[in-house]
């Protein structure tokens, strides 16, 4: 089956010359990817990142922002590798929600 | 990566090659739009670990020869209306290529 | 829960903070490591590529080395590119090159920094391999009738930069002055550099 990321040659709309000033958190997502995939740590391969992005449903892939997809994939890879557990991540996320005044 | 660890290169610049028509699941870096099509090897880029395996945190060895393959745009797209000499050049791993 | 947190704005921002905290607690990274990476990526931009282009326009031997091995040519100018495997493709009066990654957004980041948002878009990735002149037109670029197009799809370990044609009217210009003419979009291939009046 053709992956929804494998889009060369498909019909699509006009190219909008979008630029995007990345927010602090987005730059830190990028930084985490660089650090985790560096040879000396090797806690993530860029190929694992891509596979986890490609595993998103077509709808999620198009709806999510670029660094949202990356962050999803980084978390998935770290869980798959056993670096973090789902429970640990869930608890830390809940702490973040409280800090944001949401929890 | 030592030569002893890599799959030997089968093709050279100028060789005509066909991209295999295959549809495996998982992380594949051979784009759908070139599968089944014939192109010309533009160069051998070297040998690299297989991304299909790296995607599952496996070593992806022995390294596979990686080629840049040049396709005529008219070969790829039945309705291509731009120039006859336009090309698309794609990096494709040896295990996806057969002699044409 | 009435609304899933993952559906709300800020969820992935919180996930980044949560994962970063966990990695710090586990001694895998430090906050300084993260900041250093952010700063390093911020420092990379298209001007590093412009420097290489200007040198190539002035020095035919450098140009030949750059076309043979783009990464070595970058390092020759003191531009650290790490593991980048750079191929520089040369525009000529008859050939115009355009770069894309149809499968994701591969780009020579270690040289040029983060790619523009449109480079990662569905519209660009889908259409530039199939209708390159139509896409170039949407960027305001029209090619002469006798110029053919080569589209490069970065599907594996190589990364690409275009060597644009040197604009006319720049005879005798020094590298610094020439470098300022080079735009990010000309290094990707969606733009050409106009002649200087």
Q: Indicate how many domains the architecture of chain A comprises.
A: 1
The CATH class label of the largest domain in chain C is Alpha Beta
Number of separate helices of chain C:
10
Mean pLDDT of chain A: 95
Rounded to an integer in angstroms, the radius of gyration calculated over CA atoms of chain A is: 16 Å
Structural class of chain A: mainly alpha
State the largest interface: A-C, 54 and 49 residues
Tell me the total number of β-strands of chain A: 0
Largest sheet of chain A: none
User: How much helix is in the residues of chain C?
Assistant: 40-55%
Strand content of chain A: under 5%
- For this structure, the quaternary state is heterotrimer
Task: Round the mean pLDDT of chain C to the nearest integer and report it.
Answer: 96
CATH architecture of chain A: Orthogonal Bundle
CATH class of chain A: Mainly Alpha
The name of the CATH topology of the largest domain in chain C is: Nitrile Hydratase, Chain A
Q: What would your notes on this structure say?
A:
The complex is a heterotrimer of chains A (103), B (100) and C (197). Chain A is an all-alpha fold. Chain A has one domain (24-99): Orthogonal Bundle (Cyclin A, domain 1), CATH 1.10.472. Chain A has five helices and no strands. Chain A has helices spanning 24-37, 46-54, 58-63, 66-81, 86-99. The radius of gyration of chain A is 16 Å and the shape is globular. The termini of chain A are far apart. The mean pLDDT of chain A is 95. With 100 residues, chain B is mainly beta. Chain B has one domain: Roll (SH3 type barrels). Chain B has helices at 51-54, 73-76, and strands at residues 16-19, 38-48, 64-72, 87-93, 97-99. The longest helix of chain B has 4 residues, at 51-54. The radius of gyration of chain B is 14 Å and the shape is globular. Chain B starts with 15 loop residues before the first strand and ends with a strand. The model of chain B has no long low-confidence stretch (mean pLDDT 95). In chain C, helix 3 (46-58) crosses helix 4 and helix 4 crosses helix 5 (70-76). Chain C has a two-stranded parallel sheet with strand order 1-4. Chain C has a two-stranded parallel sheet with strand order 2-3. Chain C contains ten helices and four strands, in the order H-H-H-H-H-E-E-H-H-H-E-E-H-H. Chain C folds into two domains: 11-42, no CATH class; 45-188, Nitrile Hydratase, Chain A, CATH 3.90.330. Chain C is α/β, with parallel strands linked by helices and 197 residues long. Chain C is 43% helix and 11% strand. Chain C is globular and about 55 Å long. Chains in contact: A-B, A-C, B-C. Strand 4 of chain B pairs parallel with strand 3 of chain C.
């Amino acid at each position: 089956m053709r992956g929804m990321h494998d889009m060369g040659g498909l019909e699509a709309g006009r190219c909008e010359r979008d630029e995007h000033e990345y927010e602090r958190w987005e730059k830190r997502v990028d930084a985490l990817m660089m650090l985790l995939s560096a040879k000396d740590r090797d806690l993530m391969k860029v190929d694992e990142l891509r596979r986890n992005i490609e595993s998103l449903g077509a709808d999620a892939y198009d709806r999510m922002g670029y660094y949202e997809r990356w962050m999803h994939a980084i978390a998935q890879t770290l869980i798959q590798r056993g670096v973090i557990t789902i429970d640990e991540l869930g608890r830390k996320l809940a702490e973040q929600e409280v800090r944001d005044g949401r929890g | 990566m030592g030569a002893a660890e890599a799959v030997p290169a089968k093709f050279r610049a100028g060789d005509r090659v066909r991209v295999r028509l295959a549809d495996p699941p998982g992380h594949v870096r051979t784009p759908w739009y070139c599968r089944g099509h014939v192109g010309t090897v533009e160069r051998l880029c070297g040998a690299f670990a297989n991304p299909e395996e790296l995607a599952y945190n496996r070593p992806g060895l022995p390294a596979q020869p990686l080629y840049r393959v040049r396709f005529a745009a008219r070969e790829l797209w039945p309705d291509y209306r731009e120039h006859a000499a336009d090309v698309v050049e794609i990096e494709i791993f040896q295990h996806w290529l057969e002699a044409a | 829960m009435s609304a899933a947190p993952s559906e709300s704005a800020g969820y992935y921002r919180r996930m980044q903070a949560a994962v970063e905290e966990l990695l710090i607690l586990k001694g895998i990274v430090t906050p300084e490591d993260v900041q250093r990476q952010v700063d390093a990526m911020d420092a990379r931009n298209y001007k590093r590529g412009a420097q290489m282009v200007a040198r190539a326009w002035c020095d035919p031997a450098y140009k030949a080395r750059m076309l043979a091995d783009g990464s070595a040519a970058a390092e020759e100018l003191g531009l650290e590119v790490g593991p980048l495997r750079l191929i520089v493709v040369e525009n000529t009066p008859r050939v115009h090159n355009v770069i894309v990654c149809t499968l994701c957004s591969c780009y020579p980041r270690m040289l040029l920094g983060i790619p523009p948002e449109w480079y990662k878009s569905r519209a660009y990735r889908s259409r530039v391999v199939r209708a390159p002149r139509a896409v170039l037109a949407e960027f305001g670029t029209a090619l002469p009738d006798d110029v053919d197009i080569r589209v490069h799809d970065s599907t594996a370990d190589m990364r690409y930069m275009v060597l644009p044609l040197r604009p006319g009217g720049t005879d005798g210009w020094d590298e610094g002055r020439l470098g300022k003419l080079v735009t990010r979009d000309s290094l990707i291939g969606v733009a050409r550099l106009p002649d200087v009046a």
